[in-house]
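Contributing: when you submit paired examples, paste them exactly as shown. First protein:
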Amino acid sequence: MQSTNLQKDKLDLIEKIIRLEDKTKLDYLKSILNDETLEYKLSNEQKLILEEATEKYYSGVEPSFTWEEVKANARKNHNEKKS
């Protein structure tokens, strides 16, 4: 059984699609929903990197950041490069 939030998200999305009048956006959504090749295939090396990073994260070796912290750091780095 699906969660109430998932069902609500689906219904909200359906409602937005029904009201959408932009053919380009509709075509884009259709291409995404119909593309069965949209699988992300990782190489063995990429899988190993991901596994190592996940292990470091869960063990507390590597810090984690909130989305707001990530955006703030990105802005800071961008501004430092401009200077």
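Second protein:
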Amino acid sequence: MHPQKEKHRGVEQLVARQAHNLEVACSSPASATKNDEKAPDDGAFFFASGLELGHNPDKNVESVGEPSGFSQQKKMPLSEIFSTAELVGYTLPQLHVGKSWYVDFFAWDPISERMKRKKYMLDRIKKAGDRRAMAAILITRITHRLMHGWNPFVVDDSTRHLTELSEVIGKYRDYVSAMEAKGTLKQKTAYDYLSRLGTLETYIEECHVPIRFIYQFDRSFAVDFLDYLILDKDVSSTTRNNYRTWLSTLGTWLVERRYISKNPIEDIHMLREKEKKRDALPAAALARMREYLNKNNRHFLLACMMEYYTLIRPDELRHLKIGNISIERKEVTVPADVSKNHKERQVGISSKVLSLMAELGTFDSPSHYYIFGDGLKPGPKMTYLNSFRVKWEKMRKDLRWPDSYQFYSLKDSGIRDLANAQGVVVARDQAGHSDVAVTNRYLKKGAAVPDSVKEFSGSL
């Protein structure tokens, strides 16, 4: 083969090989472009550099017109170039030759809100002719991609990744409220979600977190937020884990709507939690509570007795209506839209509870009234969220009880006493547990050995 043809064929093969992987072939070395990263075949991606357009630290480097067909015009003033570039978001790439050969261009960085430089070094290609051929490919392809929306500073090719965080937060808040209105989310769940969202916004504001666009919602951001809760807000491991769970649901919501491509919370582990700080109430404490509430707040006494005897969860209790109670069958129906697991269930109600309800005139109200409305009396509007806890804390302070005695302790106490009297299976069904193992978690081992064990006489 003719030597000249062989030479051109070698260049063509080199150009063809390089064209398959533009970034690997032509990116500047790590030492020259430390912030550079591999560009995707499609989508967007930016690079930072402190050099200004037209400034060349190497006086021996000569700018060469674009081989892509763009003719070199009269040189523009720098201010005019940047004002034009900022309108379109980029400048066209061009080749520089001299001591170092490279192709560069500028693109708009949405984080720093200024034009930054992207540079491809060609020095690794030995022959000048091959460098010019590669520069032609680079300039043509870069120009095409820039004109079709590519940006080398954006790390995600999602169509929504540059949506501002404040806008996404607003849409998420509207979504949670809409799901609550439709009954898909319970009121307490919606309240918890929006409360945690508010804490996240407070963290961003208080700590001056530099997050503006939604694609910056990444693993580092989430870990820093969770550390802020532990270190600055001194929350418990349980509370931190609850926030982590919520962040994961938020991440899933963002992925489904293409704001981000992957849920960054999935790889964040849960912290080990201590045993819950909640104790069942002994018989003496239950008797003292009954005496106190009989004198001070009989409607709250009804709530406490229902929690102890029916084992219905506090938030489910708040949603119950008078029509959910059958006096004849001595049963309470927990509707599916009220139940935590979205399944309707029937639980027994003690004659003691029914007697107190009759004394309080509960059944004199319409069946569609909530059992616990304003002031914990029957009414058309259910009592406010956490009302049981607020009333309980006042009583606990008056009785000088420890913090481990909580309103939910009544459920622990009821499960313990019912299991001792009727067996753990009966307690399981009354509590609406899916398995006895769940019920057993409520039955803590006593500190003292029961007398029944000491007096037990077996067959041996």
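If you have annotations for the second protein, write them as plain sentences, like these:
The beta strands are 62-64, 94-97, 102-109, 114-121, 325-326, 331-334, 345-348.
Confidence is low (pLDDT under 50) at residues 3-73, 445-449.
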